Amino acid sequence: MSRAYAYTILAVIFWTTGPVGSKAALLAARGKAHLAPMQVAFWAVAVGWLALWAVSLARGRLARLRDISPRGWLVLIAMGLFGWVGYPVAINFAYTRLPLPDAMVISYLNPVFVTVFQGSAFGRLVRALSGWEQGPETAPRPPVARIALGLLLCLLGVAVIAAEGHLGRLGRLRSAEGAAAALFAALAWGVYSNLGRFVAVRAGREAKGLGDVQNLAAMAVGLGAMAAGLAAVGGLGPPLGYRTALYLGGRGPAHVDAWAPIVVMALLNYAAGYTLWLYALETGGRAGEAHKLPPLTYLVLVSAIALGWLVLREPFGPAFWEGAALIALGNTVNVWPGAQASARRAGTRAAASQD
User: How far apart are alpha carbons 54 and 47 in whole angstroms?
Assistant: First the structure.
C-alpha cells in the first residue's frame, strides 16, 4: 500500500501544475488577444500525449496495446469520453455559470464519486461493457463511517477555502445548468478513475501494469474530440507569440513565452500525473485499500493555492490555513489504520516470524 500512497502523492504534486499552468497561460497576452481555455487545454494535452508516447515507445510499452481485447478498447474509449472530454468541458461550463465557491464545492465531490464507484455496484454495471474484471471479485468491507467522516472533513475544508471562510456565501445556485454541469464533472471523474480496472486483455496476457497504456489511449480520445471542436471554430492554431509573467517568491516578474507553462503542465499534469493516478488505483485495489486514496486528491487544492501564490502572486487569507487543516484532518481520519487492518498486519508479522 505504501507504493499506492507514493503514486498518489506524486500525482497530487504533478496535478498542481494543472490549474496554475492553465491560469498562467490564460493570463498571457498578445496585444489585446488572449488564449482561449480550450486552446490551452488542447495543446497541453497534445504535448503531454506526445511525451507519453515517446517514453512508451522507448520503453517498449506500446506493444502492450496489442494485449487489450476489443471490449477492452470500448472501456478505454469510455475513459477518454468521461475523463478527457466530459470532465473538462463540464467543469469549465460550471465555472462560467456559477459563483466560483459553489462550482468548486460541487465539482470537488469527485473523490466521493471515486470512492463510491469502487464498490461492487459500479462493477456489475461496467462488466456488461467490459466482460472482465481485474483482481478478486470480493474484498474486505471498508470502514464506511470513517471514510464518510474523512471525506466530509475534506469537503468542508474545500468549502472554507472556496468561500474564504464565509460559508454563508455558498448555496447561491443561480444556474441549475451550472450546478448540473459541476455535478456531472465530479461524476465523470469518478467514472474515469474506476474504469481502468475493467480494461479486458486477451487470453493469456498480463493484466497488471497498464496505467500508462490506458492513459495514452484515453488521452487520444480527448485529443480527437478537442481537435474537432477547435477546428469547427477555427481555433486549432498553435499559441505563438504570447507572453506571460511568472514570479519566484519576491523575484519577478519574469516574462516568459506562454509555451513554458503549457509544456510544464503537459509533462507533469497530463502525462505523469494522470498515469500515476491510474497506477495508484490499481496498486491500492490489489491491496484492498483503494478507498484510502481519493481523499488525498483534495490536497491538490492546497498545493495549487500555494504554488499560485509563489509563481503568480495569487493572494490567500486565513481561510486557506483553516481549510488546509480540515483537509489534513480528513485524510488523517481516512488513512488511520483500523482494528481490522492492525489485526491483518499483526497476523502477517506473526506468520513471518514463524517462517
Answer: 11
3-state secondary structure of 246: strand
Please tell me the distance from the alpha carbon of residue 257 to that of residue 344, in angstroms, as a whole number: 54
pLDDT, tens only, 42-53: 899 999 999 999
Does a structural domain hold residue 349?
no
Q: What is the pTM of this model?
A: 0.84
pLDDT tens digit sequence for 183-237: 999 999 999 999 988 888 888 888 788 889 999 999 999 999 989 988 888 778 8
Query: Angle of helix 176-195 relative to helix 87-97, nearest 10 degrees?
Result: 160
Is 31 a domain residue?
yes
3-state secondary structure of 30: strand
For residue 139, name the pLDDT band (cuts at 50, 70, 90): low
Distance CA 219, CA 50 (A): 10
Query: What's the domain range around 48?
Result: 2-337
Q: Is 102 a domain residue?
A: yes
- The tally of domains found in the chain comes to 1
SS percent in the chain: helix, strand, coil, step 5: 75, 5, 20
Q: Is residue 231 part of a domain?
A: yes
